Amino acid sequence: MTYTIKTAQNEWEIVCGLEIHCQIISKSKIFSGASTEFGDDANENVSFIDAGMPGMLPVLNKECVHQAVKTGLGLNAEINKYSVFSRKNYFYADQPNGYQITQYEYPIVGKGSVKIDLSDGSSKEIGITRIHIEQDAAKSIHDLNPKKSYIDFNRAGVGLMEIVTEPDFRSPEEAGAFLKKLRSIVRYLETCDGNMDEGSMRCDASISVRLKGEKGMRERAEIKNVNSVKFAMQAIENEAKRQIEIYEQGGTIEQQTRQFDQTTGQTKFLRLKEYADDYRYFPEPDLPPLYLTDEYIENIKKEMVELPDAKKERFIKQFGLTPYDADLLTESRQSADFFEKAAKGHDGKKVANWILGELFANLNANKLSLEQSPVTPEMIGELVDLIAQNVISGKIAKDVFAYMWQSREMPSKIVEEKGLKQVTDTGAVEKIVDEVLAQNPDNLNAYKAGKTNLFGWFVGQVMKASKGAANPGLVNELLKKKLG
Amino acid sequence: MDEFAMGGSNEHSFYGPVINPYSKEKPLVPGGSSGGSAAAVAADMCAAATGTDTGGSIRQPAAFCGIVGIKPTYGRCSRWGIMAFASSLDQAGPMTKDVTDAALMLKAMAGYDAKDSTSSKLPVPDFEKVLGQDIRGLKIGVPQEYRPDGLNAEIASYWDKAAEMLQSRGAEIVPISLPHTKYALPVYYIIAPAEASSNLARYDGIRYGLRVNGEKLDDLYVNTRTEGFGAEVKRRIMIGTYVLSAGYYDAYYLKAQKVRRLIKNDFDDAFKKCDLILAPTSPVAAFEISDKSMNENPINMYLNDIFTVSVNLAGLPALSLPIGLNHDGLPLAMQLIGKAFDEETIFKAAYGLEQDAGFERK
Is some CB atom of chain B closer than 8 A to the CB atom of A88? Predict the structure, then answer.
């Protein structure tokens, strides 16, 4: 499905690329031994290196390298056995050294690709240009005092992976799907927690527009720090519309940096690119080039886990799930694991329905995570079996689920104790049917006179009389016979 | 010392200049940047001192003050704790009264440090053990490029004498060529300021040290750094910022890095023919404080580094030792340049040369 923005005169296409900063999961910072713990008191986790004290030198944290390589492999990317750290020089209060140690010409990870699935059932490959590793800046706090700014250096020096994509996105939906997929991959790999709201995953989007069919790219605007998937999609759409409006009024777009405003959903001008800082990059003399061996990379390959795409394929094949359900279940490793545990030895498709339906609805309503769920995978598996074996009906199963949620007891026990077993004994059900027919002669006559839509009413009456315990199939069968 | 180790005369110290103990009527400079260390050792105020050498800052003041100073191989000593000037050139080393003390001191200072990623894991030899060992058969290279027209005659003559001394101990003198020597100073004065401009960015008044407030953040930076840095430091920050700027990077910094590689290759080629290189440490003896030509044109001051900077660019070890006095009674010095991580051969030859020169500090 091609996404375009149609105006009275033209049909426009979006060209967008993303840069995503992912905070690396590691115990200590990328060039110092200080802790990376989020949420500690301000300036608790600051070493002399992070504070930019004189005479301090960076020492590369091997864990961060490992995490970046792992992420690269997860994004089907080339791992560069030779990479170089560089200094990006600029003055800002949250930049303690006056430069950021990053990688410039020789990043640790090269070209890769990520498959995204779209709502119309199609999928698309998004090109990864590179991943480089670098240190995060400190955090400026401007809202504590009208005249002063404060700086929390806890974040200074935390390892970051900057993931750069090709300008492959043609719609906000594609960018959104990519961000979700990327977040899911780094979470599977446990290389980044992917929490955009806490800033551990931050996104910049480069956006330009062109007429449908036009070759080449026009000037682009870079939108900084968009901190949710929804905002990213909004920013792309609104920025594209802004540019189109300018073009259609005969204006031009200059290369510029803009900021997304969460309250309006619009982008705000920050600065023109030509006035941007000259970062005076040069190779970091305090760190030797980074060399990785084939053996090192092979060892990391061995610890790779099954990633969402592979898991999804397997779920479809092994359990007969629909691609849509498989997609939802594999979005996080936790839900995929929960499903696999629940589906083991049971009807996977039905298990998926219960997880995605009843369980997720209850979790959402109670604002609980899957880990906090009172209902276990084993309970779901057993519940599905009870329905399949005609012990309870689907309707009663919902009640059983509600009891499970409260009592955390196995469904078989609940069914037993509450006497919820459905009546499958023909004689017993027939007795109830006969009673219902006998008690409602008027409706019986009406039915016989041709008002056949009363059939459902009779079913309901029988079910009610049996307190829901009668097997609905059997009730139908018997009623059909008796009503003729 | 000179502010941020930038200077060759100690006139750029925030606390005023250090005076060379060899001064007579007029106060002389002790050299720089580690001139305070050199003067203190020469004046017998201490047994030994440490210094750092980015372009000659141990060797040149050692030469001016008549003491021994060694800049070890890059990576031999940890740079951790040293305020960085030019990270790819900086090395710490001892400044001592004689070669034996230098060997002892270096052994104590050298070795791998996990806190400095550029420090070497090679074992540290017992430098003292080689002192007094035979130097017969050692090949001593004498680079023709270090003897330009107009080289001070006394220095030239001491150089010849030093070569003869080593020869009479059984060493062989070989003429060598270091063809890219003429580019060493310009290359040094691109790379060192470039790295310095970045290393000194942290002195911004935000976290520690002097802060001169301003209306906005940029004003705070400008005010703080304007007041805090001296003229020579500012000059080098400006040069360094310029050579790293977009549009100039390729022409200056990148080109300088390429020539630096050629200078290193020169030494590699030379060391195929010889084991050590003998050359003067400085083209001049100690000069007067506030010397007009040096202060009017900083280039004249920079020219004093002509024999020392190549060694830093190539990351090699070099030891300066006093060889005799000039007509004014001021010390002159020779340096022995060794292969990377071969300080032992330097110490061996330097010890012999020290015996033969019989230099006595007054």
Answer: no
Interface check A282 vs B, CB under 8 A:
yes
**Confidence at residue A276, expressed as pLDDT on a 0 to 100 scale:** 61
Name the interface residues of B facing A (CB cutoff 8 Å): 79-84, 86-88, 114-118, 194-195, 197-198, 200-204, 206-208, 217-218, 221, 241, 244-246, 249, 253
Nearest to A93 by CA among B199, B220, B215, B224: B220
Question: What is the pLDDT averaged over residues A450-476?
Answer: 85
Q: How much is the average pLDDT of A164-173?
A: 97
Strands A221-226 and A201-211: antiparallel
To 5 degrees, how large is the angle CA B221–CA B223–CA B227?
A: 115
Token pair of A314, please? Answer: 């397997």
**Encoded tokens for A155:** 């974040």
Residues of A in contact with B195 (CB under 8 A): 282, 285
Least confident of A339-343, A433-437, B63-67, B105-109: A433-437
pLDDT in tens, B81-90: 999 999 999 9
Is B201 in contact with A59 (Cβ distance < 8 A)? no
Q: Could you say which of B79, B202, B245 has the minimum Cβ distance to residue A57? A: B79
Residue ranges of chain A assigned to CATH 1.10.10.410: 426-483
Q: What is the pTM of this model?
A: 0.90
B245-271 pLDDT, tens digit per residue, is 988 999 999 999 999 999 999 999 999
Q: Which residue has the higher pLDDT, B340 or A422?
A: B340
Does position A484 have pLDDT exceeding 90, yes or no?
no
A369-396 per-residue burial string, b: 16 or more CB within 10 A, e: under 16: ebeebebebebbbbbbbbbeeebbbeeb
Q: Which of B82, B115, B204 sits opposite A91 (nearest CB)?
A: B204
B308 vs B326: CA distance, rounded Å: 20
DSSP H or E segment with residue A126 = strand A123-135
Shortest CA gap A149–chain B (Å): 10
Is the CB of A91 less than 8 angstroms away from the CB of B218?
yes
The beta-strand segments (E) located in B126-223 are: 139-143, 172-176
A100 min Cα distance to partner chain B (Å): 10
Ordered domains of chain B (ranges, CATH): 3-176+267-357 (3.90.1300.10)
In CATH, the number for domain A426-483 is 1.10.10.410
Question: pLDDT at position B361, please?
Answer: 80
Q: For residue A465, give Cα distances in angstroms to A393, A414, A424, B49, B150.
A: 15, 21, 15, 103, 121
Q: Which residues, 6 or more positions from B196, have their beta carbon under 8 angstroms from its beta carbon?
A: B4, B6, B85, B86, B236, B237, B240
Model confidence over A66-98: pLDDT tens digits?
A: 999 999 999 999 999 999 999 999 999 999 999
Q: What are phi and psi of A107, to 5 degrees?
A: -80, 165
Region B335-345: what's the mean pLDDT? 98
